[in-house]
Amino acid sequence: MSTVRSFEELEIWQLAREIARDVYELTKKELFSRDFSLVD
């Protein structure tokens, strides 16, 4: 069993960051760019 020194080492945290990055990329597209409540 390995020791986790910081939350950044957790695989679930790394996957969440990837998903967040994908969501930001999708909301930059023109279809979503005018829907300010969705983008926020």
Q: Which helices and strands, and how do they pair?
A:
Elements: H1 11-28, H2 30-33, H3 36-39
Summarize, please.
With 40 residues, the chain is mainly alpha-helical. Helix content is 65%, strand content 0%.
User: Which word captures the global form?
Assistant: rod-shaped
Radius of gyration, taken over Cα atoms and rounded to an integer in Å: 15 Å
Total strands: the figure is 0
Order of helices and strands: HHH
Helix share bin: 55-70%
Structural class: mainly alpha
What is the average per-residue confidence, as pLDDT, rounded to a whole number? 85
The end-to-end span amounts to: 40 Å
Tally the helices.
3
Low-pLDDT segments: none
- Main beta sheet, described? none
Indicate how many domains the architecture comprises. 1
Give the amount of beta strand, in percent.
under 5%
